[in-house]
Write a structure and sequence with these properties.
Shape: globular
Number of domains: 1
Order of helices and strands: HHHEEEHHHEHHHEHEHEHEHEH
Structural class: alpha/beta
Radius of gyration: 19 Å
Distance between the termini: 30 Å
Strand content: 5-15%
Oligomer: single chain
Length: about 325
């Protein structure tokens, strides 16, 4: 969005995250221009890393970069717990401000990163394709790995509770890179820690969403880890994904975000297929199968939102 790009010319991504007025403005920008059904808190899933002792910054054109990646058992052991109400209070201030601005216009979704994704960023030093350093520690030092993930789970659980207390209407746990694991490794090394987060949050009574990318092989395991809503990316047809997850859970997804770079007739045809596979069953949240791409025409997103509402509103 041009409005967002104008702000980014003046402020860094971390400036936007750490300044409640700016985070509020960026959160509200899509609500003003696109017919979406909820606002999503503008923040970044890496924010808890710095108070844990893992410093990072964003490198233009490359994404997040960790100052000193965690590569040994001793590195993992140095990571500390913290109180998000103190260390991440600016996020909570932004939530309260956004809720005031939104009023009854739309609910607000908060979020946090899940254990594997946060751990892999901290260990790899940034984005990775093979996750070699992460898996080497996971396989080679399982006790240290589980202790590390316990810390992440405690921090993320407290952080989401604080977001709920500040006023978010739902929370989403992003495990963006967990598709790098097979089902057996997910159940051994990740599921107990992610489940711990959901067990911490679920009693508070807000809807919970659990999302990962490339998770077709572990959708049932994501369900077992927790979440009222399980996200599915575009690689698995929605009806097949929902059957694996179980119809006692809601599903979010799952249009391929790259379709929005093409002609609208193709976007609408693919949207029709997603909706047909949902079959009118209650509990489907129409969404993209992953994040929107920066080069996506805003007009295509606006048209998609209008089209979905035309097709689904009684």
């Amino acid at each position: 969005m041009n409005e967002y790009r104008a702000i980014r010319q003046r402020y860094s991504l971390l400036d936007l995250c750490r300044t409640p007025d700016l985070a509020t403005e960026v959160t509200l920008q899509p609500i003003r221009r696109i017919d979406v059904d909820a606002a999503i808190l503008f923040s970044d899933l890496l924010l808890p890393l710095e108070p844990m002792g893992v410093k990072f910054d964003f490198v233009q054109g490359e994404g997040p970069a960790i100052e000193n990646p965690l590569r040994t058992e001793a590195d993992l052991a140095r990571v500390r717990r913290f109180d998000p109400r103190e260390e991440l209070g600016y996020v909570l201030d932004a939530i309260r401000q956004i809720k005031h601005e939104l009023g009854s216009r739309a609910p607000l979704i908060g979020f946090a990163g899940a254990p594997f994704t946060l751990a892999s960023y901290a260990i790899e030093g940034g984005h990775s394709s093979a996750f070699a350093h992460t898996k080497a520690l996971m396989y080679g030092t399982p006790a240290a790995w589980h202790s590390f993930c316990d810390v992440i789970a405690d921090v993320v659980g407290d952080y989401l509770v604080a977001q709920i207390e500040a006023g978010v209407d739902a929370v989403q746990i992003f495990d963006s890179w967990v598709g790098a694991l097979n089902a057996a490794d997910y159940r051994e090394f990740i599921l107990p820690h992610t489940r711990r987060i959901f067990e911490r949050v679920t009693p508070l009574g807000v809807p919970t969403i659990h999302f990962g990318v490339g998770t077709g092989a572990i959708l049932t395991d994501l369900r077992d880890a927790g979440g009222d809503v399980i996200g599915a990316d575009w690689r698995t047809p929605l009806d097949e994904a929902w059957a694996r997850i179980g119809f006692d859970r809601a599903i979010q997804g799952n249009l391929d975000p790259t379709l929005l770079l093409g002609p609208l007739d193709r976007v609408f045809a693919a949207t029709d297929e997603v909706l047909a596979r949902a079959g009118g069953r209650a509990g489907h949240i129409f969404n993209l199968g992953h994040g929107i791409l920066p080069t996506t025409p805003l007009e295509h997103v606006q048209a998609l939102a209008r089209y979905v509402h035309q097709k689904t509103r009684g």
